[in-house]
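Budget justification, computational time. The allocation requested in the original proposal was used primarily to generate structure tokens for proteins on the priority list. As evidence of use, we reproduce two of the resulting records. The first is shown immediately below.
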Amino acid sequence: MTRRRLLVADRVRATGGPADSNAVLVEGGKVVAVGSAATLRAPGVHEQSFVGATILPGLRDAHLHPVPYAALLTGVSLKTATDLADLADRLRGAAAKRPGAIVALRMDDETLAGRRLPTRADLDDAVADRPVLVHRYCGHVAVANSAALAQAGVTSATPDPPGGVIDRNEAGEPTGVLRETAIEIVSKALAGTAPVMQDDLLRALTALTSLGITSIGAMVRIGDGPWASLGNEAELLASVADRLPLRVHGFVIANSVGELDEGRSLLTGRSSRLRWAGLKRFADGSLGGHTAAMIDPFADAPHERGTMRLDDIDRTLAQHCFDLGGTVAIHAIGDLACRRVIDLFEDLGAAPGTARIEHASVIDPEDVRRMARLGIVGCVQPAFLGSEADWLEDRLGAERMPMAYPFASMVRDGVMLAAGSDSPVEPPDPWSGMALARDRNGIVPAEALDAEAALDLFTNGAAAALGESQPLAAGSQADLIVVDRDPITSTPDELRRTRVHHVLVGGEDIPIDPLIESWVD
């Protein structure tokens, strides 16, 4: 006989629950009821009390790259490098500790002295005897040293790949800077040289549960792409399926029908906590790297409109994914990319809730209304507001700022919204993300969400985007958390200090390890 458990706190925040709810009854991994403890108490029911706490649905991060995130926690992060000398010192330190190629993440030219990308020469001065590949924090620009370019066979005669650019100097020689699909030329040559180990991935996922995250939309590759050096991400997830501490919904970043089918096979039937969710594709790049596809040029680069990456294969893959019953998630940051993705989904007749635009960072108001009308999910990243404040208006100009991250307009117009972090692009902390959805770091305050809508991004909205039932409803999976404050009455700054006391996934207690770091800068 399955034991019934009653979790009691000061309050429960659950959609559709009674206003005076302070308890959740759980049995067999499912929620039996949400209500008052006085009503739900019964003989034989084991009761756990959390004084001064709030019970919430488990939080969902609808867009996260788990293997690169694990690589960040165990590898080389450059986000806080102050200048090129500091960056070089960090690369030398990494080279002294490990053999083989050096792959570093989260380099940010906007915060380096001089505000410029390093070149192959800068990286050669740091490490010249082995390949080095440094990824900009957005993931859409990277820099390779001479050894990495040589291993990939990149010379002045190498053409730009479709959807990518190899930066060159006046003599036509590659500078080492690679944009969009050009990164893959080098990363594929380094494939598997910096693999993430099983225990490292599990440790990273455990760090997420300690933040209150019980489900993720995992963007995973088959073994190619800009992070090919990390190995076959789908295969790695499949190998730890029976040890996952949270639910993983895998979106396969595929370049062919065969890759999508392979990813689906790897992520299916291995564990109740791992499933294939669909396809991930890219329509453009990033605002920071000037590769987001824009209708009008960038304000600080008047001859640049970004890189449009949509082509015929996107239509083929999207249709195949829909035919398999999956969800199609397409990265689109610029307003032109968002428009073209909406066009594609409309042409394909995508059923409401089965098509997602990832990010939708800059989007025309009419396209917001089209998203709502067509039932296209917007998977947004409030965390971007925390890192783009110093340069966002430079990129867009004042007249386009109202189109930047228009969360409130999306909610008013009826767009189905979910939130993700895009980690390791940004920290995976959902409490900071919730706070940023509310205070927006001062960026276009009119687009701020209220407390209920901000919480919904990471609970009901994200659950729906991942194909899960309504959280904390009777009969749903008992994925819930106990935290030290009420996110509805807390200010954004108070919300950022939230601490998680207890986590359940499918009714199972998930140990919280405060010694595991969830972020490295």
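The second record produced under the same allocation is shown here.
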Amino acid sequence: MDADIAIVGAGTAGCLLANRLSADPATRVVLMEAGGRDSWHWIHVPAGYLYTMGDPRTDWGFRTEAVPGLAGRSLKYPRGRVLGGCSSINGMIYMRGQAADWDGWAQMGHRGWGWDDMLPRFKRHEAFAGGADDAHGAEGEVSVGPQRLSWPVLDAVRDAMVASGVPATSDFNRGDNEGVGYYHVTQRRGRRLSAAGAFLRPALRRANLRVEVGAPVARVLIEGGRAVGVARVDGTAVRARRVILCAGSIGSPHLLELSGVGDPARLRRLGVEVAHANPDVGEHMQDHLQMRPVFRVDALTLNRLAATWHGKARIGLDYLLRRRGPLTMAPSQLGAFVRSGDHVATPDLQYHFQPLSLEQFGEPLDRFDAVTASVCNLRPQSRGAVHAASPDPRAAPSIQPNYLAAEADRATALRAMETTRALFRRPELAALSPEEVRPGDVHTDREALLAEVARNASSIFHPTGTCGMGRVVDDRLRVKGVEGLRVVDASVMPSITSGNTNAPVMAIAEKAAEMVLEDG
């Protein structure tokens, strides 16, 4: 036996689990990562996500299938392929979701997953800049605190939202995230703090922890209904008493299917022998779709600041000398959680306000000052799927998010646009002379606006649910029908949380580590 526990995927969950489970020197842990080491400097500069997303050194480079609800477009779909996983390329926003999300899981029958159950797990790994209190921890590995820059133009947007009746907040993570304020981020002294930096690096000195990089896994080895290890793509294997998949909402269902766990008809078409029949594997995918209306403004934004060599030099010096300024930027600084109408009890819209704009991701910034008011539906009813497209483990899986398939999601999108336009008509913003340039005021009727949304909306990359509790795994995250096999990542969520998903994955991994240790 090569190890007691084999963990597949050194992303957020995998790094945390490797730390917690190897704390017992008698437990031999091997952590296997398909990507490389996190030594590239852009991983650690917060604004480096502009370079790490889409680069094969750090990103799987996936694309979705053509999405009918998005006018048949195929979207780029970044997923971390490096130590730290998505926490090495994401937006660094620390967002637990609403207490109602977690209590909703408990009400579905998933005992032990309510807000009061999970709050101690959030606090365990948190080093909150404001110190410990009833909602926050201060002794953990993950630095959580305010960003190191501000923009007067975003202050004006915040003040306009407050004037409209949205409460101001300095903390979205106390269970009720309704309000407007600046996001907290997972950074330490102006540098990104990934799961690799927070959890894995401090544990590397342990003799019982082995970390493999450049070690993609082909499948889980299942013998007699039990996981006994994993096979690498190169044909070698690791034998282990227990296997934990932490490959994310895309990778984990893909690996389960290649291992023979999934819909029998689908597996037969792939030529994969069925180890356990479960047609829910890869199904029930949820993700947050963002619309990105853009408003030209009479105020300084990154568009102008970054347009000249003088501005670029100023940005670089500010970071080199003080670890401040735009290079410390998360993709979004100002956030808001609001309700799209009186028919919802808790906020169902999330805003990511940005002091910049561009036509499409990866293209240059616009040559005029602008604010992007990205807004997403927090609780989409549309469901997508992730499935193996080939028996070759090196082939990308099929990803079909199926955005806007549900009429309720299309109606919410329209209400979100109405809410956003009303905000930028507020008298408090008149001094900025805001002018809608995307999609533009010409798109006022329902069908034209929906068509514009279909042409320009994009993912915020929060895939969840593809190995959901109650469907693929049980409440202890054990894969149904296969002994010795667990899944621990965002794929196990029975329903998506209301906000960014990295913090919830850390809490899920904390609880999973406890359960693995309890099971012996």
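A brief technical remark on that second record: The domain at 1-67+77-143+185-286+383-402+462-520 is CATH 3.50.50.60 (FAD/NAD(P)-binding domain).
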